[in-house]
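It is worth pausing here to work through a concrete case rather than discussing structure prediction in the abstract. The textbook approach is simple: state the sequence, then state the predicted structure, then interpret. We follow exactly that order.
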Amino acid sequence: MVQISVLFFAASLFASAFASPVKRTVAQVEADLADISSRVTTLDNNINAFPNSGGSLAAALGIHTAATNLATALDKGTTDVNATPAFSEADGKTILNTVQGFEPSILDALKAIVAKKPAFDALPLGGVSGLVKQDLGNLKTSTDNLGSALIAKSPADLVSQATTIKNNIDAGFVPAQAAYASA
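Step two, the predicted structure:
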């Protein structure tokens, strides 16, 4: 009897592993984007609050935590967008407006992280710039994945605007990643 139960349980796990992915809704994507927006603001604020000299390791680790939390939110957003049907015109516009709303904060954070590199390098415990380099790589990948997913689900007439936002953010990563390339 126990063998039959174990076999049934194993077969159920196997079947669920190959079940179709859970469908998501535009409302879930909008909630994800609201979370991303909040996390972008937190990261931007943490970076801008870090002093140009005399910063603490705790504050630097706060930036790392904010970057990690943002990457996780971006990845969740990508998963949900990929599991959502193509956006209607109205939904596509709402989503585009939401992303346009936090685009400036992303670009500001990327610009500010370049300016803060000397302060990170001056911290008594080395390796913070290497951590920033790693965070930038993770954020770039997560941001690109979400941008591509959003573009793929956008109505045809919004694709060029969505692509422009993605390209602007990609361009913001270039100097940030270059600044930490040797870290």
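Step three, interpretation. Residues 44 and 105 are 6 Å apart (CA to CA). Residues 5-20 have pLDDT under 50 and may be disordered.
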